Amino acid sequence: MWSNTETMNIDGKALSLQLKEEMRSSLSLLEKEYGRKPCLVVIIVGENPASQSYVRGKIKAAAFVGIDSRLIELSATITQDELLHQISLLNEDEGVDGILVQLPLPQHIDELKVIDAIAHEKDVDGFHPLNTANLWLGKDCVFPCTPKGIMCMLQRSGITLDGKVAVVVGRSNIVGKPIAKMLLDANATVIMAHSHTADLSSITRQADVLVVAIGKEKFITADMVKDGAVVVDVGINRNAEGKLCGDVDFDAVSPKASYITPVPGGVGPMTITMLLQNTIECFVARKKRS
Ligand code: GUN
After folding, report:
1. How many Å apart are CA 13 and CA 102, to the nearest integer?
2. Is residue 251 domain-shared with residue 163, that is, in the same domain?
3. Catalytic: which of 97, 123, 125, 247?
């Protein structure tokens, strides 16, 4: 069997720390220039433990770099109209630069309506339809955090994309679709695969860069990966023992890959770091306009 002894783990945790330290020093200058720190508001509805843990991570990371944050915890029984009203107050609040509504929302609330209600210039998730449209049109936009984090990891690892075949497995609005567009913009030849793709292995084996966001533990096995491929694992799953694991069978795939992102410690920390970067960018953009 071909074995690559040179496989590099792309350490998202270490890169995140480096980026957060860079942000922390740039923020002290920005605070002097604009008279205050950026402010991020995070809304959580209900008591989903995974969401609560993600939200705590976001608030903690914001504090680390010097971004003010506010956590609004709402009951799972809140009506859609009440939530939309909260968002409209935050849209009008001059002191708020970023608004994030943690997903998923309870069944009785229409997520698309909620995302649509956030002022696009405060949409630090990059999920608003105007940001999505601008991404696809190649105009200025807020980039969604996970794809932005992936592109940053690839770039900082010195991985070039021009002319490469990139296969994206998964077609979500949050990851699959936007990362495909961003890889396309980097001149990769992009193939999108998903749950209905026929003969998936023959597609994934073409990938110079394989991005997997399907949400199934060990979905990508060694036989599905080309020797020397760059493998980016976006999955966050819990295995039978309750341990965090990705969508890629890491131990089996890693020897074949040239670069691979681990779970945990790969894409996850970068997503939060890009949220902080988006908050700072939204703050600066609004301050420059006012
Ligand atoms: N739930 C899981 N990931 C995300 C994310 O990136 N943003 C929001 N708002 N909710 C999420």
Report:
1. 22
2. yes
3. 125
58 belongs to the catalytic site: yes
For residue 226, indicate whether it is catalytic.
Answer: no
20 classed as catalytic: no
Range of the domain at 72: 35-119
Q: Are residues 103 and 186 in the same domain?
A: no
Considering its fold, how many domains does the chain have in total? 2
Residue-wise pLDDT for 185-231, tens only, equals: 999 999 999 999 999 999 999 999 999 999 999 999 999 999 999 99
Query: Would you state the structure tokens that stand for residue 112, as one six-digit string?
Result: 């698309």
Distance between Cα 53 and ligand 1 center (Å)? 12
**Residue with the nearest Cα to atom 1 of ligand 1?**
103
Counting residues of the chain whose pLDDT is more than 70, the rounded percentage is: 98
The answer to whether residue 133 sits within a structural domain is no
